[in-house]
Known about the structure:
The complex is a heterotrimer of chains A (about 270), B (about 375) and C (about 290).
Chain A: H1 19-37, H2 39-42, H3 60-67, H4 69-101, H5 106-120, H6 123-137, H7 143-167, H8 171-179, H9 184-213, H10 216-221, H11 229-238, H12 244-272
Chain B: E1 23-30, E2 39-46, E3 51-55, H1 62-70, E4 77-82, E5 85-86, E6 97-100, H2 112-122, H3 127-140, H4 156-168, E7 174-178, H5 186-203, E8 206-211, H6 214-220, E9 223-228, E10 231-236, H7 238-243, H8 248-253, E11 258-261, E12 270-272, E13 275-277, E14 294-298, E15 304-306, E16 317-329, E17 332-339, E18 344-350, E19 362-367, E20 372-376
Parallel strand pairs in B: 3-8, 3-9, 6-7, 7-8
Antiparallel strand pairs in B: 1-2, 1-4, 4-5, 9-10, 11-14, 12-13, 14-20, 15-19, 16-17, 16-19, 17-18
Chain C: H1 3-36, E1 38-39, E2 45-46, H2 49-56, H3 58-91, H4 94-109, H5 112-123, H6 128-135, H7 147-171, H8 175-183, H9 188-216, H10 220-225, H11 233-243, H12 247-272, H13 274-283
Antiparallel strand pairs in C: 1-2
Helix pairs in contact in C: 1-12, 2-12, 3-4, 3-7, 3-9, 4-7, 7-9, 7-13, 8-9, 9-12, 11-12
Amino acid sequence: MRAGPAARRRPAKVDAVGWWLKAFGGLVVVFFILPTLFVIPMSFGESTTFQFPPQGFTLRLYENFFTNPVWLASLGNSFIVATLTALLATTVGTAAAVALSRMEGRLARFVRTLLMVPIVAPAIVVAVAVYIAFLGWQLTGTVAGYVLAHTAIAVPYVLVSVTGALGGIDPQLLRAAASLGSPPWRAFLRVTMPLISRGVLTGAIFSFIVSFDEVVLALFLRSPVFHTMPVQMYNSVTVEIDPTISAASSLMVVATTIVFVLPQLLRGRARRR
Amino acid sequence: MTTTPETTVRDAGSARTPGGTEIRLEHVTKDFGLASPAVDDISLTIEPGEFMTFLGPSGSGKTTTLNLIAGFETLTAGTISLNGVDVSDVPPHRRNLGMLFQNYALFPHMTVAQNVAYPLRERKVDKREIARKVAEVLELVQLTGRDDHYPAQLSGGQQQRVALARAIVFEPRALLLDEPLGALDRNLRAALQTEIRRIHREVGSTFVFVTHDQEEAMSLSDRIALFNKGRIEQVGTPQQLYAEPETLFAARFLGDSNVFELGRSALDGVTWEGESWAVDPATVSPHPGVKENSAIVVRPEDVQVARSRADVPVGANALRATVRDVEYLGSYRTLLLALGEAGLPGRVRVNPLDGDYTIGDELVAWWRPRAQRVVAAA
Amino acid sequence: MSSNTIKWSNRLLLVPALALLAGILLVPLAGTLVRSLSGTGPDAGLTLRNYANLFTDGVTLTVLGRTALTAAVVTIATLLIGYPYAYLMTRVGPRARGILLVIVLIPFWTSVMARNFAWIVILQDGGPVQTLFAFFGAEDVVLYGTTAGVMIAMTQVMLPFMVLPLFSTLGAIDRRLLLAARGLGSSPTRAFWKVFWPLSRGGVMAGVILVFTLSLGFYVTPALLGSPQESLVAQLLAQRTTQLLDFAAAGALGMLVLVVTLVLVAWANRMGGTVSAIGVVAAGRTRSR
């Protein structure tokens, strides 16, 4: 049906979305994004307080962040703990996801719900309980303690991610692999693993972020000689005003946004291929 | 396909038998714990190199039986042997049986060539040999030139050909096909049916084909095993099953029938609406159920119609019929009739040259006793 | 491989996850439970005294009340903001929807400390919010150090947990029902209240319960943005543990919060698949619809 030049009119939609709704949506988007962005101009300011708007322009805070031994130590600790957590959580979580995908019935549902508890349980209650327990086991202030605690709360994220990936696999594929001569472990390696690799990677990345960013447990498990960066940032506000926190915050915001948004963009591009 | 690479898969028996493998099922039973077993005491011998079809409605146990042969399900009772060797406890990856699935089950992260090469890599075949065999089998299924494509880039028919190539490239002892054409439209299905028949002849292995489509079964098979409620109702060539059904279920499942249920055994004599019908003993099914409850079955093409009783030959069985509808099918017509006083639905095929029939016409339907079949009614 | 082998290999694969869960979560929480049931002095041994004390101690009651109030306000705020936003998400095209979803999830995944620090900067004395209020004539509005400020910051983080259950429920409502109502003579407002709103109640309940429950346990935000005089229960818990070393009382309080949280989440789960909504937030994306 071709419209002639006279009929070139955009038809009025019966059920159009009101402009006010879109405007509201825009406001909400601003509410989501804008506040966090305030840390970025703060990180270039010259003052020693948190005054806004910041005066001057300097990279001093960033310089301090990368040279001050206390900040560096906390950054290094965070990296170590987060990396180990990602490795451990991904392994443990993937194994659990694979096992659960092959199980049915009430037991499977119960275990799955049980493994999701860390996300739902209030962080403060968990932190206090773990703190007291770790005191007894002498795990406070140690890398092992941090890694174990963070892994426990990161596993649910891996579980969700890998379970989603596993759900997308046609069950006949594993039967086909068996009919073609693959014993189950080789079918897992050659068929299942490649197909869930993106889910596993996503789980690993999320585990890393969860650990790197975790505050409450970190606050309770710290010792004077060992703490992670979020704790250092916390001290910058409560113990002594340290504007370096602006630089740390800006870097964190940029880093997590990139890490979080990048897979979405990649997935969008892959789908378009 | 000429030479066979040495198979490193330790299995029970050789990978290649000229003419294919014999598959023997003895008292095979599979119970899932539901009201009745999915497969109930089935015994069947599939000859080497034959094209055997498991035919039946959904839930009749045909796919479960295929899965038992493949090893994807474990036997509740009975044994399955390949060339005389019991494989009941052998896991599926060691049975050396090729399999085709309804949704193709191609590995989406591998190319066509990688998919087809998969079983050869599992058997540690050398790289050049792999390339040669992959090319050879892709030519066999007429899909050369697509080695680097991914399954998602192929049509349904092409994907099934790749699956077929993958399933036969390692020269399996037999090929199991689980309703492989179910997802394809009519034209594609017909084309692939021809392909499968051709490949069966060229390759010579035993094929076990599962379908619920009786036309497909009739056109492809050497023999058909008709499944009903977990049991095999009848085994025979397509011709045998069509012309000599032993039970009412078999008569109804393959082709159209005119059915007269007697409610008792035909061996005590047949009377229908007051008329006595002759029964040719050669047409009585050997099924033991005939002694208890029988039905008389006549194919539409074996029924004729006459305008009056006087025109019916002596010795023929007859009853009055009223035309309810006329189906025009080009070279012949089918009359839908209301038979006898009860007005049973009936079908008869007529030649248009014999004259026109209209709705409401009162006719006499008749057939010779040797054209009818006495079958066991459940 | 027999099904028995499969069963055992599955159990083996689950052992690490379950061991970790047991060791890091269940055992310490069991310890908390035991401590909460332990008495000292005259009532040594198992006792419910600590739980009883929770409800007789004025401080605890005030804090619990304040926490519940805060959570309630945050819940209402997220509902008022989240409902139209979720509705908008159902109405736009797939690409815009994807963008809106990512934006909803960003605060959840951004650094907790960075986020709270930003709010400190914004809400502090001399900060932009104060300037904004001064512009409209309200002098000296410092939201930093107030519960109101805490509520604002919490709303930002809790919105995804309201939007996502709502989005999935609202998206399932057939729009033609609304058009039918309009066609039968209803004004758009009446069509909404009579048709759309009732059908969305499941998602609303799920979101409300979820946001309320998760808000109860917040620690960092009230600790940094609130004032010690207006503590929420998480801060009280921390204080009792690390400063007062009153492990028994802390244990009872912690158990109370935990049980309330678990019960409410289980209830919300029955309403509208909340565990899966959490899972969605955790996975950072929705299932393809």
